[in-house]
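Posting for a labmate who doesn't have an account.
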Amino acid sequence: METEAGPATRPSLRAVPGEACFFFDVVLSPDDNEAHRDYCHFDMGAYRACR
């Protein structure tokens, strides 16, 4: 998601991972790595990873 301020700088995108950890096993945020710089990844995995 590109914004005028740059990729993944909107507060709503950065706030999502914390809440999503209650519903998904794997949550990777824009702060996790370069591959997820402009979106969040949600998954029902075999392990827990909430970043």
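Reply:
Got it, the structure tokens are right above this. The first strand starts at residue 26 and ends at 28.
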